[in-house]
Amino acid sequence: MPVITCPNASIPEVAGDAAIYVNDDDVDQLANALCEVQKPSIRHSLITAGLAQAKKFSWSKMAQTVSSALIDTTLLSLNLNEVNLIIFPDWSQPEELIGLELQQVMKAIATHLNSEKTTLLIDTGNIAGEDAELFLSSVVMNLLLQEDLDVTERLEISLVENLADIQWEALLPRINAKILLEHEDQQALAQVAVTKVPFCQIDNLSNQLDVLFKQEKQIKYQLSENFIIYYIKEISISLPYDHALPHYQKRFRLYDKFIGVIAKYLPNDQDFVVDIGANVGDTTALLLQYCLNPIICIEADEEFFGIMERNLSEYNQRIIFVNSFVSGNNFKNIELVKNSGTARAVESKTKIVKSDSLESIIKNSNLGKCILIKTDTDGFDFEILLSSLSIIKEDRPILYWENEISSLKDIELAKDLLNKLANMNYTKYIIIDNFGNPLFYGCSRQYLEQINEYLFNNTYNKNNTFYYTDIVAFPETYSYLIPQIASEYNDFIRSSDVYP
Question: pTM of the predicted model, to two decimals?
């Protein structure tokens, strides 16, 4: 329905370019607008723009934004800084022992060149706030009397009282390191997932602070000099300046968009999604906007993993980040070779990377049932799926993989995978070429095998129509989704929209 309205208050923000605006006291303007809106071309453009504008607003997106804002507000009192350190004293120990350790920590930080850019967080979960403040005041006074050091002028100290799990999830990514104490509150440490936070030793704290500030400086430099800001629909992410995604999506409008339509039609939002080969988080950023499901992001390359964590940090409530290669072995003889913003895994006799099975990663996540597995690892996707058959058999998720065929080995691995999937009642497939164009909706495995032969034959000539395919495999349980997915994706293709 076309809209005629006034440019008052927040209406322009809501309506955007999808309305005809008239002044609230201009009758002639309103009459002209009423005539204009009768024209078919104007009506069509307003309706199209209105549908696109409406997609920018959703209850789920609003809930996420409000939730993140409220959580961030609760952390404002901690006065977080450029570098944030945390300690977990065992307040049940004698005051002399705790006081000595706290004096050592405060002195090391307060005498550092960048002390004013540092916040020391002190966990007080098992002591009354007033008691903790009184005790810390005595520690500060001792430093002033014994060392002539006024800590309050050089260092920000914040007490961390009883935080909810959701607050810890928001706080932990902002903590640079945990300082190890001889007497720590083991119960508090068990309740808070600090194992992924780096740690510092008291006796070498000054040097370790140098390292932390150097790392922060490098991150700021990289973000300003070597990265670009790129929008995945409504979510902005940082990409390495040589990343190929902007170039591909500029040339090929459909590139890497199809999985968003699949996510939109997932039959429930309680089961989780797995993104293997998550790179810098671009696919997950798309999924976040089309479904409400929890997501496990798995990336083997440490540099890309770090970028992904920063890109998606505000969505920590929905995402579990895992830095690992996926296979059936604990370690894998491969090397990650980077090119144009991707890391391709190639076999190596000298390089070894840590690897976990998908089954173990999923069990450690404690999320329940898997509904969608996407894997894009530039050459190892067949092996990953074949090593994950136990979890596939148990949950029967929709499978989405990059189908790269460059050797007879790939042909055989593909056949082996399709045979095993057939035994699990995977009967229907969607085949998309590497540019995002659909080749088949709801076809049988025989079509896929013929496409694979075509891809392999293309390795012997230079007249390629396309270079690889993306495959979506549906168990019989979810095959009813294919017509809806096909209809929406076809509508997107025939429109001029940037995203479905």
Answer: 0.58
